[in-house]
């Protein structure tokens, strides 16, 4: 049924070609267009017939809207499109899919102002209109060598990610490793979850701009194919660098780990302090990408949600995310708080300290769940020393490591109210960075790791913004952290 609906919608787009796809609320769009038509009837009764037979832009929109309303069962999971007549460049405007809404753009929920003023001191801002390029399927096929296997960066239950090259010069030929490198996510259009995640990515990354968020460059929807085009982030994921194997993967020194933690914290803080809060909902090491200078960029907004209204403390929603990173109150009740993201950040801090995955069934009994195992040990400096990542080779300031461990403990508090805000986390980490010595003291004894290190982990080099998903949609990143669906 889903495939048939997609095919039928695309058939109507081809029959009544629209210059611009953009997310749109069918019922509100129908009402607004109807009002526009009634005004035209008053002033141009004679021209109405000619416009109807000429398939004017307004009539086409109403006709398509009526057809789309017939698919009400799945309207909440499909992108229905509106456009502005006479515009030369594509823009996307999203509205909520609930019936009876006011017709206000969903993007405008983030801010009531337009002008893109800085949202905070970290130069992040919310764009008044999404600045996305609409690619043709032919362009992306050329960019990725027709989605060849040697361009594949990663794949999961809802699609694949390919590396490509986009040339901004129309006269140049694409596909020859020239131009701008990009990551192209090709989602499965027959997957309802894949379509929902496609829409969420456009909803959030299309408007949110911050140095610590991965940049969404554009999209394509053609021939039943849903694609997203991102900036290419050279050094892959934090997960890759913490747990990867092989000569291509280098251990991260202490100062780089601190830099990554600060960048990721700034990205989350920006989301949480926007005029309309955004709950990321899936913060984990594999969703933190690193550019050529090891600046952290949060990627994959497929599960992101707008935060609660002022009168509420949480959002009640279906439990989705990744085991091991999801906050306990969310897993047990479905209540999603802004500070549920803070718990996930605390898990990543522990992973960065220890170099161990949050879940690993191959570890000794009682150590499979990293947080449950190490929480009682983080307040003990001697035990913390034994837990520190052996790949650091003892080259880290023990005082700073202890302070970060205490910060992680606060983030991992069972009560969301007891956790710090991400703004407070940023302040704490920035103080540590500014006070760090030029050269970290080396302990006399090299720290030993608790729990044997297992071999045979898959090389994670060149991980993509797309999670690896297995088992019908649950992401199990290499013996740990299954995705909750």
UniProtKB/TrEMBL annotation:
Q: What class of enzyme is it?
A: transferase
The family database entries (CDD domains) matched by this protein are listed as: STKc_IRAK
As for what it does, the entry says: May be involved in plant defense signaling.
- Please name the Gene3D superfamilies in this protein's record: Phosphorylase Kinase, domain 1, Transferase(Phosphotransferase) domain 1
Q: Which domain of life is it from?
A: Eukaryota
| GO cellular component, as recorded | plasma membrane
Q: One of this protein's Pfam families, by short name?
A: PK_Tyr_Ser-Thr
**Ranges where the Protein kinase domain occurs:** 147-432
One term of GO molecular function: ATP binding
Query: Which keywords does the record carry?
Result: ATP-binding, Cell membrane, Kinase, Membrane, Nucleotide-binding, Serine/threonine-protein kinase, Transferase
The UniProt similarity line reads: Belongs to the protein kinase superfamily. Ser/Thr protein kinase family.
- This protein's record includes keyword Cell membrane: yes
Residues recorded as binding ATP, renumbered to this chain, are: 186
EC numbers for this chain: 2.7.11.1
Question: Which PANTHER family does this entry report, sorted A to Z?
Answer: OS01G0588500 PROTEIN-RELATED
Name of the molecule in the record: non-specific serine/threonine protein kinase
- Where are stretches of biased composition, namely Polar residues? 455-471
Compartments in which it is found: Cell membrane
Where does the record place Basic and acidic residues bias? 430-445
PROSITE patterns named in the record: PROTEIN_KINASE_ATP, PROTEIN_KINASE_DOM, PROTEIN_KINASE_ST
**Broad class of where this protein is predominantly found:** membrane
Species for this entry: Punica granatum (Pomegranate)
Region Disordered, annotated ranges: 430-485
